[in-house]
Design a protein that fits this description.
Chain B: Keywords: Endoplasmic reticulum, ER-Golgi transport, Golgi apparatus, Transport. The complex is a heterodimer. Chain A has a single domain, classed as Beta-Lactamase. In chain A, 43% of the residues lie in helices and 20% in strands. Chain A has helices spanning 33-36, 45-56, 58-63, 77-97, 135-154, 167-180; strands at residues 2-8, 14-21, 102-109, 112-118, 124-129. A 5-stranded antiparallel beta sheet of chain A has the order 2-1-5-4-3. In chain A, helix 5 (135-154) packs antiparallel against helix 6 (167-180). Chain B has one domain: Muramoyl-pentapeptide Carboxypeptidase, domain 2, CATH 3.30.1380.20. In chain B, 45% of the residues lie in helices and 10% in strands. Chain B has 6 helices and 4 strands. Chain B has helices spanning 2-22, 66-81, 87-114, 126-142, 185-198, 226-235; strands at 148-151, 158-163, 202-208, 218-224. A 4-stranded antiparallel beta sheet of chain B has the order 1-2-4-3. In chain B, helix 3 packs across helix 5 (185-198) and helix 4 crosses helix 5 (185-198). Chain B starts with a helix and ends with a helix. The chains are: A alpha+beta, B alpha+beta. At the A-B interface, helix 4, helix 5 and helix 6 of A face helix 3 and helix 5 of B.
């Protein structure tokens, strides 16, 4: 079971990203890429094709839960990034309507659920995960990341668009992910 | 062989002592984290606590003295004035400096107010956001709420926040030939950053509006972008 976190600046450029593999027991065993490919696929590249064809019907699969092709556990980096990007429209819709910072399950794509957290300064934390029942853990995780982000922001050399490279920040986000996710 | 070596050590000694002179209390007074590089090992030992080890609420009761602020602000204005070509330029630069403060004020202020809550909230409507600038932001930055909020009669996209005795201008007397200058452009920058962060892009400027009773009375004029009004119209 994996989690993907992206921090996005107010202009939607990524300033930090993290992939976290949960040590907690997985709800479903994740299959290797090849076993999820349709029978006609012969090359590893076909996995990407499957993912992309799923992407073109993103609105469809949004309304039909469980619909669409299950692809390689979604482990492909570019697919993950694409899903995160695709969810931004939904996040912006919801954040205009609701005044909560933590937006749970704003978007779904195949087995992925997208949760988000919007800070008052319009920085978005986007988390891709495949757990439906860990709301409390995700909320606590976002809360920790928020505190760490505020501390980063207080550094006078940091601007809203600076990529976060601090090893201390990274270590703390990982520690919180380990605890909560 | 010995000669250059000893000279070198003399040099390095003198440079060390001058560094000591520059920072009499040692390096601990700087709030920089110890600048970790990407390749630094995570488990390395640190001599002093970095920014992530500090408590964000600890400073709630300790405030910066007004004279220290006045001194720093006077240096800011002097520094900026040497590098600009006119009053407009000077105000614009003060506004930019204020913007950098404002975006931090917004994040930190909201964190202090909301982090204890289970479901932290943001402002999504304009008028409550304006009210929170008038009270919370002013209280966080200047220690007291602003004096009034007004809505322009002629233009529906203009709002004003009025401060009868703005803290940054308390020790500033503007020369007569620069009478248009308002150093509260710095404050305007703070307001602009807060509005921007909350999703209400606006052009914010500061203007002197003295009265008999309050000679340094200042109006912070907020001119909202069209998109903000259209959105407010939709969610109404």
């Amino acid at each position: 079971m994996s989690h993907h976190l992206f921090l996005l600046s107010p202009s939607d450029t990524p300033i930090y990203s993290l992939t976290h593999y949960s040590s907690k027991p997985a709800q479903s065993t994740s299959y290797p890429l090849a076993s999820n490919l349709p029978t006609w696929s012969t090359s590893a590249f076909a996995g990407t094709l499957t993912a992309l064809s799923g992407a073109s019907s993103v609105t469809q699969s949004h309304h039909v839960p469980g619909g669409g092709v299950k692809m390689g556990g979604g482990q492909d980096r570019h697919v993950v990034q694409m899903i995160a990007n695709a969810s931004l429209d939904n996040i912006e819709d919801v954040m205009r309507r609701e005044n909560a910072m933590y937006l749970k399950s704003v978007d779904k794509f195949n087995e992925w659920t997208v949760s988000a957290f919007v800070t008052p300064g319009n920085v978005k934390f986007v988390l891709l995960h495949d757990q439906a029942k860990n709301d409390e853990g995700i909320r606590a995780f976002f809360h920790d990341v928020w505190e760490l982000y505020v501390k980063t922001m207080l550094n006078p050399f940091h601007t809203a668009h600076t990529v976060i490279r601090s090893a201390a920040f990274d270590a703390r986000v990982r520690a919180s992910a380990k605890k909560n996710l | 062989m010995q000669q250059p070596h000893s000279r070198f050590s003399v040099l390095s000694n003198s440079s060390l002592s001058s560094a000591d002179l520059l920072s009499p209390t040692g390096s601990s007074r700087f709030s920089l984290p110890s600048a970790p590089s990407i390749n630094a090992t995570l488990g390395q030992t640190r001599q002093r606590p970095n920014i992530y080890d500090r408590n964000l609420n600890k400073t709630r009761s300790s405030e910066v003295s007004a004279s220290a602020f006045a001194f720093l602000f006077s240096e800011i204005v002097q520094y900026t004035q040497k590098r600009v070509s006119g009053i407009n330029d000077l105000e614009r630069r003060l506004n930019i400096l204020g913007y950098r403060v404002g975006m931090r004020v917004l994040e930190l202020m909201t964190w202090r107010a909301e982090s204890s809550s289970k479901a932290p909230k943001r402002e999504i409507r304009f008028l409550p956001a304006l009210m929170s600038i008038h009270t919370q932001v002013w209280r966080a930055v200047f220690g007291r709420p602003a004096d009034a909020i007004e809505k322009s009669v002629e233009n529906e996209d203009e709002y004003m926040i009025i401060d009868n005795d703005p803290l940054p201008e308390r020790h500033i007397s503007v020369p007569r030939d620069m009478s248009q200058l308002s150093c509260s452009s710095f404050t305007a920058g703070i307001v602009e950053a807060v509005l921007d962060g909350l999703g209400f892009p606006a052009r914010v400027t500061a203007h002197n509006t003295p009265t008999q009773q309050y000679p340094s009375r200042t109006t912070i004029l907020i001119k909202l972008e069209k998109s903000v009004l259209e959105r407010e119209e939709i969610v109404k």
